[in-house]
Q: What sequence folds into this?
């Protein structure tokens, strides 16, 4: 009778824990603080140069802002399109580096992709403003002209 009692106790405890987590607001609490893997623009540029096939470099700003100025090698997937396009991104094998003008929008995109289970993310510290100030290659007009016209 004792093994049956122990089994029922374990199953009952498991049921209570599941109910507490999934039927209460506890499921929305971060018991472990999520981390954001930051990378300096110069370090990312060097890493991509050393292993171009190991990275997907995404500019999450709108298409118009991206066309005005962007980091060389970055592709454009506006943050609004991540909902439909996140399924096409690799969850392993490649690192996904996210950039925007100043780093804020890329941080939001990072959190969104992290929610969908991506663990291979990098956030470019300082965004395109720091990228440009470090003298790294860009396409288009000056980022400073773009950043004064939009806060993305």
A:
């Amino acid at each position: 009778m004792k093994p049956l009692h122990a089994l029922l106790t374990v199953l009952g405890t498991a049921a209570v824990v599941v109910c507490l987590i999934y039927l209460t607001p506890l499921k929305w609490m971060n018991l472990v603080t999520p981390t954001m893997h930051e990378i300096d623009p110069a370090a990312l540029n060097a890493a991509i140069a050393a292993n171009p096939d190991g990275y997907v470099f995404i500019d999450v700003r709108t298409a118009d802002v991206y066309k005005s100025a962007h980091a060389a090698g970055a592709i454009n997937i506006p943050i609004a399109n991540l909902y439909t396009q996140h399924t096409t991104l690799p969850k392993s094998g490649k690192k996904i580096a996210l950039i925007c003008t100043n780093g804020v929008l890329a941080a939001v995109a990072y959190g969104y992709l992290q929610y969908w289970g991506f663990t291979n993310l990098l956030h470019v510290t300082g965004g395109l403003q720091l990228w440009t100030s470090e003298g790294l290659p860009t396409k288009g007009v000056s980022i400073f002209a773009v950043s004064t016209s939009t806060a993305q």
